[in-house]
Amino acid sequence: MKLDSKKKEGLKQYRKRSALGEIFHRLRRNKGAMAGACILLVLFAVALTVDLWLDQEKVIGMNVRDKLQGPSLQHWFGTDEMGRDLFWRVVYGSRFSLAIGFVAVFVSLIVGVPLGAVAGYYGKKVETVIMRFTDIFSAVPAILMAVVVVSVLGTSTINLMIAVGVSSIPGFVRTTRAAVLTVRNEEYVEAARALGKSDLYIIFLHVLPNCLSPIIVQTTLRVASAIVSASSLSFLGLGIKPPAPEWGALLTAGRDFILDYSYLTFFPGLAIMITVLAFNLLGDGLRDAMDPKLKR
Amino acid sequence: MGKYIVKRVIMLIPVIIGVSLLIFIMLDLAPGTVLDQIANDYTPEQLAALEHELGYDRSVFYRYGMYMWDLLHGDLGTSYIYKAEVWDLYMQRLPATLLLAGASVLVSIVLSIPLGILAATKHGSLTDNASMVAALLGLSMPNFWLGLMLIIVFSLNLGWLPSSGFKDGFRSLILPAITIGTGLMATLTRTTRSSMLDVIRSDYLRTARAKGVPEKTVIRKHALKNAMIPIITVIGTQMGRTLGGSVVTENVFSWPGVGRLTIDAVKQRDTIMVTGCIIMSVIMISLIQLLVDITYAFVDPRLKSQYASGGGKRKLARAAGGGQT
Amino acid sequence: MQDKAASGTLAPEEPVLDIQHLTVHYVLEEETVEAVNDISIRLEKGRILGLVGETGAGKTSTALAALNLIPDPPGVIRSGSVKVCGRDMLRMSQQELEQIRGRDVSMIFQDPMTSLNPVFTVGEQIAESIRLHTDCTASEAMERAGDMLELVGIPRERAGEYPHQFSGGMKQRVVIAIALACSPKVLLADEPTTALDVTIQAQVLDMMIALKEKLDTAMIFITHDLGVVAEICDEVAVMYAGRVIERGTLDDVFNHTKHPYTEGLFNSLPDIQDRTAALRPIPGLMPDPTRLPKGCAFAPRCPYASPACIETVQTERAFSETHTVMCSAYEDPAFHIRREEV
Fold first, then answer.
1. Is the minimum CB–CB distance between C69 and chain B shorter than 8 Å?
2. What digits encode the pLDDT tens for the residues C44-85?
3. Going by DSSP bridges, is the β-strand pair C235-240/C218-223 parallel, antiparallel, or unpaired?
4. Which residues on B lie below 8 Å from C148 (Cβ)?
5. Which of A3-7, B31-35, B151-155, B244-248 ranks highest by mean pLDDT?
6. Which chains would you list as touching A if contact means 3+ CB atom pairs under 8 Å?
7. How far apart are CA B208 and CA C178, in angstroms?
8. What is the pLDDT of residues B62-103, one digit of tens each?
9. Can you tell me the distance from the alpha carbon of A127 to that of A104, in angstroms, rounded to the nearest whole number?
10. Does B22 contact chain A (CB < 8 Å)?
11. Closest CA to B101 of B322, B281, B294, B267
């Protein structure tokens, strides 16, 4: 039967968008998520290229004559007790915070996702063991766990990343397991099994690719909380120490001057807040875009 | 019900064993022991004797065995930094922590539930988006920063409220409670909103409207009670988490709570103290969880009959609402 | 059936429910569902109108619009009026609406499993309506809720139980008790028996007729079960793609069928005399309600359709004082459907 033009048009309409396109389309309609994405783009651009265009002198150069100047046209965020320009220090600090956020989440991803996938895929005893261990692990409050890890490994940037990463492993195990459980018995998995593929092959090529959306959402949101955790540790004196221009450290250094020079704590915190908000907005937007249940 | 409580207590035992073993081993891997911290107070002979007494001349498992043996007898051990019973030290700090946790969760409830309901009833509107951004803003502010900003405004500049300590009673509670409560807001608002959204288009609300029930009553009575299970779950989780110690906020406001006690103990390698605190917070968290489970029964009659028949209520609670991780 | 139909003459009194030119659309992100298109229904006191049609014909939307309960968004009432006892539900303040709903007009919903609030006792749910609309104390309301339960055949002691403790049929009775609690003048019953098994179906139907006789309630009975219609209705309106395409007394529609679609409905019923006869379903599907043709929406499936049908805007054509049909084929005076031949 020949399709008349009207029917063809109808078909085209239904096929117009792929699943990915549909997610992207929904994401683009979410103003918050788009705002978050724009902020993050700028932040990434700055963090990746800051070495190329920012004179180091501006970040670490001391100028005691100009110390503790309030925000002005010349020094947007004012200057600290050594006369360093806070704006450039915050700009430079974006590298630390973003790097810590991503590396930390990468650590929990590479541990948490395989564990969750194995637990969800095999079920039974394997699952019980992994999940009970996860329960035990998450019974310790995350910040305490991070503090313990830092005190085991010693204070350094890398260790801070690991500590924050380790403390958010349980979240990834749970998310991945839950997602795997929903696809474990799908027919394409059964089919792969029937073809005699190895379990590892099935988990990585069939199961996990179909569990991506919750993991992506979790990753985005976790980067946000990792940045907060890392700066909290810096604040507790267990993370990056001043004078490194990491935001948490900048803020902690400013705490000594809180009475008279409150801008020293205000601006670094504002930077953290905006970055974290951007990740949260994007993560929330992704969740809504990927969850067809919310499509209304 | 009694059987259920017993079951929950039994389930707690492996978690306590696991958590304490984990902490014991991890802290043992860290450089230094509690003895280094107190070395100055003792003669070398005393120190050697103490090292033997505490088991530092043997393996970590031996010390863990010692600890568990005491724990089995209901003894949480002795902190050698404070030279006092861990139980006493913990109980000294608990009231402040309980107070702060309760007040924070209360702040969060008072702000989040109306906001979540508003967002859900105006789903998709500007109000909805604004509420959700406001809630996210709360989540995105680092606690220590918000705390410091509140201190700057309300203590240093306006002089309305004290900036630290515990002495001014209710007045000293306000700022820390707002600090933590704001952080909890995002999750609770989101849960309230999504839970209400699930309910708001349900057939039984349509039935209520068709009866002529005023819209306000439809939302506050008919919808809210049905949306309560996930909301209570989140409140319970948050209560538990704050009870475990809000380390950062306690630090900002010099609040004499459990969180700071634990962190200080970690820094001083006081393994016994750390383990004791964490075990106590695990117990507190599951107490809260138990309380939450009991509350479910009052909210949802379907769960009540499940309790009566002794079925698996966690499974059911999850089916009826499901918590957020 | 014959007797019942014969008694169906219209009394010339003011209708308790008067729907005029009602149009309801659901505006979605990328398309608009034209659920109800310019329909008019009048109903006198104590009469039962059967609203018949396939799933998606717009029956439930019509009933919801009569209570001004169309979910908005996405629902939009584009035009029309719905007068209950002379007052227009669509031009009323929220407060006035709340007073009328449940008191003058109420609705029995389709799915008893989801229509009751799981966290309140059935007694509370019935009593709530009574308390809202009559001047009585809480205990009096509970007392009357008990009476209502007995009326629908549930022992009053069960008022303190929760919906999950009831079976499906019992829940449907509770839903009916809620709807009838304040003796409304108009009752909209949306497939009240579809979710029930056949034996309970009969019980519920008998009960509803008894209640109608007792309370003199006018009723719109939404169903796709023609047997039920024949059993309890005085009048019938057949809906297709959001339009009433044929309406009249039970006798008009059942014995003097005019519209090809109505004919198709009857033909697709199994023949009880000839059990081996194959069913004759109407070929094709209802048109996509987001893209309705300008003319007759049934034309693509209609055995009598001419190319003009799809283009011609359909108008109502009266065959008697009570019987109207929306089919342009009758412009040819010689046109008749096969059912009329016998």
1. yes
2. 888 899 999 888 788 888 888 888 888 877 888 888 888 888
3. unpaired
4. none
5. B151-155
6. B
7. 9
8. 888 888 888 888 788 888 778 788 888 888 888 888 888 999
9. 25
10. yes
11. B281
The Cα B265–Cα B251 span in angstroms is 14
Size (chain B), residues? 325
User: What are the beta bridge partners of residue C108?
Assistant: C189
CB contact under 8 A, B129 and A31: yes
Model pLDDT for residues A213-270, shown as the tens digit of each residue: 888 888 888 888 888 888 888 888 887 777 777 888 888 877 777 777 777 788 888 8
A97, HSE (Cβ side, Cα atoms, 13 Å):
35
Which ranges of chain A would DSSP assign to H, the alpha helix? 5-15, 19-29, 31-53, 56-60, 86-122, 124-139, 142-153, 157-167, 169-183, 187-194, 199-202, 212-235, 247-255, 263-290
Residue A127 · residue A277 · CB < 8 Å: no
| Residue length of chain A | 296
Is the predicted pLDDT of residue B301 greater than 90, yes or no? no
**DSSP bridge partners of B78:** B85
In C74-167, which ranges are continuous DSSP H helix? 94-100, 112-115, 122-133, 138-151
pLDDT band at B319 (very low <50, low <70, confident <90, very high): very low
The pTM is what? 0.79
Cβ pair B212:C132 closer than 8 A: yes
Query: Looking at residue B85, what is its pLDDT?
Result: 85
Distance from C-alpha of A238 to C-alpha of A160, rounded to nearest angstrom: 8
Test B152 with A262 for CB contact under 8 angstroms.
yes
pLDDT at C197 over 70: yes
- Non-local (6+) Cβ contacts of C88 within 8 A are C81, C82
Q: Is C118 on the interface with B (CB under 8 A)?
A: yes
* Contact between residue C137 and residue C159 where contact means Cβ atoms under 8 Å apart: no
Q: Mind listing the domains of chain A with CATH numbers?
A: 46-294 (1.10.3720.10)
Tell me the shortest Cα–Cα distance from C37 to chain B, in angstroms: 23
Q: Using CA atoms in the order B14, B15, B19, B24, what is the torsion angle rounded to 10 degrees?
A: -20
ipTM of the complex: 0.82
The string of pLDDT tens digits covering residues C220-248 is 999 888 888 888 889 999 998 888 889 99
- C118:B203 CB<8 A: no
State yes or no: pLDDT of C9 exceeds 60.
no
- Which of B124, B214, B299 faces C119 most closely, judged by CB atoms? B299
Give partners of B (≥3 CB pairs < 8 A).
A, C
**Cross-chain Cβ contact B266/A280 below 8 Å:** no
Place of tokens 């650590």: A107
Domains, chain B, ordered by start: 2-86 (no CATH), 91-321 (1.10.3720.10)
Which chain B residues touch C95 with a CB distance below 8 Å? Answer: 214
Structure confidence by residue, pLDDT tens digits, C249-260: 988 888 888 888
What is the pLDDT, as a whole number, of residue B313? 42
Q: Is A255's Cβ below 8 Å from some Cβ in B?
A: yes
Is the CB of residue A43 less than 8 Å away from at least one CB of chain B?
A: no
Closest to A45 measured CA to CA, from A102, A115, A122, A98: A98
At residue B309, the pLDDT reads: 58
CA of A35 vs chain B CAs: smallest distance (Å): 11
Q: CA Rg, chain C, in Å?
A: 21
Query: Chain A residue with minimal CA distance to B285?
Result: A139
Nearest-Å Rg of the Cα atoms of chain B is 24
Instruction: For residues A88 and B131, give the distance between their C-alpha atoms in angstroms, rounded to a whole number.
Output: 33
Please name the residues between 111 and 130 in chain B that touch chain A, using a CB distance below 8 Å. Answer: 123, 129
Count the helices and strands in chain C (H runs, E runs).
12, 12
Provide the pLDDT for residue B306.
Answer: 65
